[in-house]
Write a structure and sequence with these properties.
A three-stranded antiparallel β-sheet has the order 3-8-9. A two-stranded antiparallel ribbon has the order 1-2. It has a two-stranded antiparallel sheet with strand order 4-5. Helix 5 packs across helix 6, helix 13 packs across helix 15 and helix 14 packs antiparallel against helix 17. It is about 65% helix and about 5% strand. The chain is mainly α. It contains 17 helices and nine strands. It is found in: Membrane. It comes from Nicotiana sylvestris (Wood tobacco).
Length: about 575
Amino acid sequence: MAEEDIYTKDGTVDYRNKPANKKKTGTWKACPYILGNECSERLAYYGMSTNLVLYFKNQLHQHNATASKNQSNWSGTCYVMPLLGAFLADSYLGRYWTIAIFSIIYVFGMTLLTISASVPGLKPTCYEKDKCHATNGQTSVFFIALYLVALGTGGIKPCVSSYGADQFDDADPIERNHKNSFFNWFYFSINVGALVASSLIVWIQQDIGWGWGFGVPAVAMALAVVSFFSGTRLYRYQKPGGSPLTRICQVVVASFRKYRVALPADKSLLHETAAEAESAIQGSRKLAHTNELCFFDKAAVKLESDENSGSINNWRLCTVTQVEELKSVIKLLPIWATGIIFSTVYNQMSNMFVLQATYMDTHLGKFRIPEASLSVFDTVAVILWVPIYDRMLIPFVRKFTGHKNGLTQLQRMGTGLVISVFAMVSAAIVEVVRLGIVRRHNYYNTTNVPMSVFWQIPQYMIVGCAEVFTFIGQLEFFYDQAPDSMRSLCAALSLTTTALGSYVSSFLVTVVTDISTRNGKPGWIADNQNRGKLHYFFLLLAILSVLNFFAFLAVAKRYKYKKAINKDSAAMVPADDK
C-alpha cells in the first residue's frame, strides 16, 4: 500500500496533481469491497444476535426479563464500543487499519462463540430440546465470546460508512452527488446480510443446532475480512488528524483561561492559519466562524502571553477551525439525543417482538417458523424502501421542496420518528387481540395461542420503513456535519444512540417489572405472557416516541448546518440546506 503517494503534506487526499491516481481509485470502483464487507459483517452480527434472547432463555435457562436485559445490555455495548474504535481511527490508526485490526478480533470472538455452543463440556447440557442448563463456567465462556464480538464491532461500525464516503471527493460535484446515494446503498447492503441472517441462519439455529447456527456467521465474518482486504489497492486513504479529544480539551482550557477577555467586534481578528495555507489540523478543511456558543471564541483571541519563545502554546491559543470543531460536536448533541427513543423502539425487534411471538401460532402448514425469523419482514421493508426512496421518492419530493435530495437530512430523520410511533401501536394492537383470544378460550397455560405469528408482519414492516428515513438520514447527517478530521468519532456518536436505546429498553424493563409485579401480580412482562400486559409496554414506548418527536422538532428548528471553507476558492461550502 503506497499511501504516501496520495497524501498532501497536511494528510488530506489530493489528486489535483495526480489525475491518473484519482481515476484508478475511489468512487464506486472501491465501494463494492466496502459494501461486501458490511453485508457479510452484518450477516454475522444479525445471524448471532437476532435469536440471542432465545439462546439466553432456552439454552442458558434465564427468565424472560433477565434474557431481555442481557440481550439489551450486550447490544448496547456493541454500540458503545465504536467510541473506542473511532478515537483510534481519527487519532492514530486511520480508518483502514482500524477496520482491519478489529475485524480480526471479531473473527476470534465468533470462533469462540461457535466453540462454546458446539464443544461438549463448553456447551450447555440439554435434557430435551430447548430445556437446558449451563454451568457458571459455560456461561462465562459464552459471555467472553459475546463481548469479544462487541469489541470487534467497535472498530468496524464507526469506520466503514465513513470510509466508504471517503471514496468520494467533496470538492467534485459529481462525486459528491454519488456520495449521497452511497449511504442509501450502504444501508441496503446491511439489510441484505440481515435478510439472510433472519431467515436462513435463524432456521439453522432452531432446526439444526446452535453450533452450526453460530458457525455459519463466523464464516461470514471471515468472508467480510477477505472482501475488505481485496479492495486495498483501490481505496483512497486519509491520514489521522491527531487526537480530537485533545483538541477539544485545548479549546475548553483556553476559553476558561481567557474568560475575562473581551471578544473583538471584527471576528476576522480571531486566530486562524493564513488564508492561503492549509488547516492546521491534518485531514480537515477550515471551518467558517459561526456566531453560536461565542464563549469558546475566546480560545482564538490572540494575546502576547500565548506565544512562548516564538511558538504558539496550543493550550492558550486555538484556531477558529479548532473552535468550530467543538461547536459542531456540541450542536450535534441535541439531535443525537432524540435518536435514543427511536433506537429503543428498534431494539424491540430482537427483544419483545420475539417474546411476543413465542405465545403465537408459528406454524405455516406443516412447517414451524422460528419466532426471530419474523424480522425478515423488517429487512424486506428496508430492501424495498431504499430503491423506492433513492429512485422515486427523491425526484418526486424535489419538485415540491426544491431541495436536491428531496428532504433535508433533518426532515428525513423526523419523518422516520413519526412512522416509528405506528410500529408500537401496531404491536400493542396485536397483543390486545392475542390476549382477547386467551381470555375467551381460557388459553392461559398454553404457548400456542391460535393466532398466526404473521399478524406481527405490519409492526416489522413499519419499523423497516422508519429505519430508511431515520437511520440512513442519521448516517448522512452525522457524516456531513462532522468536522473532516472527526468523522469516525461523530459516526460513533450516532451509533451510541443505538447503545443507549438498548440500555433505555433494559432500564424500562427493570422499572416496569419492579412496579407491575408488586403485590404478587404477574406484571406487564410475565414469564407466562398470557397473564402479562405486554401491550402496556408497547403503548408506553408509543407515548415516549410522540414526546420525543416534539423534542426533535424543537431542536431541529434551531439547528444550523455547518459551512466548510473550500481551500481552492476560499468559498464557504454548506453541507446541506436547512
